[in-house]
Amino acid sequence: MTQRSKAIVLLSGGLDSMVCAGLAREAGHDVHALTIDYHQRHRIELDAAKRIAETVGVADHVVLPLDLSVFGGSALTDDIDVPKDGVGEDIPVTYVPARNTVFLSLCLAFAEARGARDIYIGVNSLDYSGYPDCRPQFISAFQQLATLATKAGDEGETFRINAPLQEMTKADIALEAQRLGLDAGMSWSCYDPAPGGLHCGTCDSCRLRRAGYEQAGIPDPTRYAAAP
């Protein structure tokens, strides 16, 4: 019997990471999920990550505590208001300093320890909030780093940083979740959760999610506290 390859999926609990987990499973990988509890204010996404991991049927799911609120510098980890006036041109205050660099480094360590050579991350360069660590150049540079920084790379192994949603719109991603048979209602996108387990409806992430479903022309399973 052929042994299935292993893949590490950075599973935040959001729609994008849920679709990445489904795509990794569809590609035939044994999925090992890594969720970072970075003391984000939208901690409800940790519960979403657990639900998604169970539904996808991951081989294991590591929830790693890493309190980035000690550093601060972001509306997601600090006592800073989450903007509600729409996506602008500047990098927003919801950017967490070097988050994807830190998270991919942890995924790389997890991959090397598990013997995995594929890492999946749900970054997107089209429908995103202007974060520099979501760009294709960043993913390409980190893949080169992965070879230089590891024992496996030094021995001739190659790590693949898979960003399958990189060129998708949020509408494309919503449709992909539907195609994969994943219940998007399990996922969590909101930066500023409203009481009762509702998405606020007005933060950047809620606006992008809602617009994506409208453009896709399919029902949005998300419960919002307010319309943007």
UniProtKB/TrEMBL annotation:
Pathway, per record: Purine metabolism; 7-cyano-7-deazaguanine biosynthesis
Which enzyme class? Answer: ligase
Which keywords does this chain's UniProt record carry? Answer: ATP-binding, Ligase, Metal-binding, Nucleotide-binding, Queuosine biosynthesis, Zinc
**Which residues participate in Zn(2+) binding?**
190, 200, 203, 206
Gene3D superfamilies in the record: HUPs
Q: Which cofactor does it need?
A: Zn(2+)
Q: Which GO terms describe its molecular function?
A: ATP binding; ligase activity, forming carbon-nitrogen bonds; zinc ion binding
Function as written in the Swiss-Prot or TrEMBL entry:
Catalyzes the ATP-dependent conversion of 7-carboxy-7-deazaguanine (CDG) to 7-cyano-7-deazaguanine (preQ(0)).
Q: What is this protein called?
A: 7-cyano-7-deazaguanine synthase
Question: Species name for this entry?
Answer: Sphingomicrobium lutaoense
Lineage at the top is: Bacteria, Pseudomonadati, Pseudomonadota, Alphaproteobacteria, Sphingomonadales
